[in-house]
Amino acid sequence: MLKQLLTITLMSTPIFAADEMTPPIAKPIPKELKAFGETRQDPYFYMRYREDPTVIDYIKAENAYTESVLKPIEPLADKVYKEIIGRIKQTDMSLPSRFEGYYYYSRTEEGKQYSVNARKKGSLEAPEEVLFDANEMAKGHKFFSLGMMSMSPDQKLAAYATDTTGYREYNMRVRDMATGKDLSDSVEKIGGINWAEDGKTIFYSKQQPKTKRSYQIWRHTLGTPASDDTLVYEEKDERFNIGIGKTLSKKYLLISISSGLTSESKYLDSSKPNAAFQTLIPRREGITYSMSHHSDRFYIRINDKGRDFRVVTAPVNDPAEKNWKEVIPAQKGLYVQGMQIFAKHAVYLLRLNGLHALRVVDLAKNQSHDIKFDEQAYSLNFSGNSEFDTEELRFTYSSMVIPASTYDYNLNTRERKLMKRQEVLCGYDPANYVVERLMATSTDGTKVPVTVAYKKGFNKNGQAPMLLYGYGSYAIPMDPSFSATRLSLMDRGFAYAIAHIRGGTDVGYSWYEDGKLMKKKNSFRDFIASAEMLIAQKFTSSKKLVIEGASAGGLLVGAVTNSRPDLFQGVIAGVPFVDVVSSLQDKSIPLSTTDADEFGDPDKQEYYEYMKSYSPYDNVAPAKYPNMYIFSSMNDSQVPYWEPVKWTAKLRVNQQGPNKILLNMNMDAGHGGASGRYDRLKELAKGYAFAISSVGIKD
Q1: Among 253, 286, 319, which residue terminates a domain?
Q2: How many domains does the chain have?
Q3: Of 421, 501, 603, 639, which has the highest C-beta tally within 10 A?
Q4: Residues 64, 151: one domain?
Q5: Catalytic, out of 106, 399, 551, 615
């Protein structure tokens, strides 16, 4: 059908290869898309017909073209890849986590793509018991993911789920740890797993086949077929996803129900799996909360009195709002990001004016203290806290120069003990690198944090290369954590920067709300302001600046490239969400309904018009675009493959300059790219080689 539609056109003088193939050019076939009295033309709508072999042939032609253009930098990509793996301790073990008399951990072996999950009983000197060897399980599959695992209360059985397509289609089995054999229990296409305390009952979430939305919770009894399972809850509102969890006390199973604006929790005594779930706080539009448990009280983190949350407690026997007791009030500049409630202490993960801290509360004495840190910018999070009755808090700290460092903190004595620091081989010394936290001023006067790292000796003369990274969606913060892979850039004279733009929770939950829905353009303006500030302060220039974003970060870099193509020399866009209007209008696409609370509902005219004004695909126009490296995967369930394919095709025919528009499509992976760790690093090295070459560095 489409053979006649694809033609080949010679592009302008190449920047990477002098003898590359001619790029594939897809002939536009306008398809009329009607909404609110207007007709929008989508010239490459037909790219979604993957069952037509001509579409696949076209994508393969894109891959071949990209390979030909990047052929001269293959030695550089290989060199960067070898540098990256040369810094990694390839045979390594995670820090064991104690749980129910066992020490659980994962380990890797040099040359093997996947991890091995294992445990030891009683002490670390005990014999190792291998739970799952993903290297063996992955044999015969081009993609493999051990997506989830939940141990039975007696630690004898493991409910686990695997995906062999990359399309997030996880199938559950139950393994007997004594024999290493799977039981007859099997459920297809699930979203989450948790055991009741009777050791015989498993609760799991079920996904809608097309949209991938987790919308049901089912109860399964060991030894029975899935056809006998009982539906215990179904979420009818398509904006909401649901999940199944358990309090740290193990006393209650939890159903979490959430959209981008609103949440609700239901709870059930985990020793009574056949009882009914109870609603903690009925959902209220625009109110988000989470819960934990201690003794006779629930701890509730909620944003009803302030957008950055407060913490209240409620009696288990009557958790109505009239019985709440406030323990952390809503305060300006204090964002309660998370909490862990132990038998004798409560620990809260906070952001104080954007910087992380941990607050420890002795529940018996009602006394508190904060754990603080000295660097200008860093990342901090809970890590492996699986036991309720403990005096040890485990957390992980890192910065852009300090590798991930896991500490055990005694909640009584306040002693902090470093248990494991990520090893970076080849003589890495953090003292040779510098981190700065700067502020850019966005168009509305908002101060936007930007974290920059570089090697000592970096010259701020406006001639140095820089990679600027951003995301800005879904309340996900881009914390300034460590990555050994970035050293391949910084050791070549790059500065590496992260723009903490609105749309994430980098400064608080209100920071997120200022970068979504009808305020989404704040994310783009913040990013452009960050780039302009870095240029003004002579960290780099527009001819040396490469930007990167993935998924919703691909939306970010796509939108800012349309509005300011002159500002960047190179763009790296991974699995980019760029066809915003059409994808959110198509309710058969995963995330299209749940994303209405993030970007808006295009069936409402004000959202339709607003999204259309920034959607990267819809706003491609003739311009001198930067060099662009776009990569994606055919089995991506979150951003359909055709979005980057269509975007590439439209960019190429509108390119007015000599720079290259390149698409690399992994034919066998999902949203996260290749599943094997070495394959993922090869993909990363190729992107870095592109960035290095884009700014004219000859290695």
Answers
A1: 286
A2: 3
A3: 501
A4: no
A5: 551
* pLDDT above 60 (res 6): no
pLDDT digits (tens, 9 = 90+) for 349-392: 999 988 999 999 999 999 999 998 988 899 999 998 999 999 99
- Model confidence pLDDT, tens digit, residues 285-323: 999 999 999 999 999 999 999 999 999 999 999 999 999
Angstrom distance (rounded) from CA 66 to CA 63: 5
Predicted TM-score (pTM) of this structure: 0.93
* Spatial separation of the C-alpha atoms in residues 657 and 652, rounded to whole Å: 10
Closest alpha carbon to 381 in 389, 371, 390: 371
Distance, first Cα to last Cα, the chain? 45
- Annotated active-site residue in 106, 185, 636, 694: 636
- Active site includes 671? yes
The answer to whether residue 421 is domain-embedded is: no
Burial (CB < 10 A; 0-12, 13-18, 19+), residue 214, is buried
Looking at residue 623, what DSSP letter applies? B
3-state secondary structure of 627: strand
Same-domain status, 280 and 167 = yes
Any idea what the CATH number is for the domain that residue 241 is in? 2.130.10.120
What torsion, rounded to 10 degrees, do the Cα atoms 251, 257, 259, 262 define?
-70
The DSSP H or E segment spanning 53 is helix 53-69
Question: Do 130 and 221 fall into the same domain?
Answer: no
Shared-domain flag, residues 534 and 666? yes
CATH value at residue 642: 3.40.50.1820
Same domain, 517 and 440: yes
Q: Is residue 391 included in any domain, yes or no?
A: no
Provide the residue range defining the domain that includes 184.
141-286
Q: How far apart are CA 267 and CA 254, in angstroms?
A: 5
Token pair in block for residue 558: 């796509």
The tens digit of pLDDT for each residue in 176-196 reads 999 999 999 999 999 999 999
- Tell me if 611 sits within 8 A of 599, measured CB to CB: yes
Contact 403, 379 (CB under 8 A): no
Q: Which of 270, 671, 675, 694 is catalytic?
A: 671
The arithmetic mean of pLDDT across residues 153-173, rounded, is 92
Query: What is the three-state SS of 184-211?
Result: EEEEEEEEEEEECCCCCEEEEEEECCCC
The DSSP bridge pattern shows strands 661-666 and 367-371 to be unpaired
Is 205 a known active-site residue? Answer: no
Average pLDDT of the chain?
93
593 near 532, Cβ under 8 Å? no
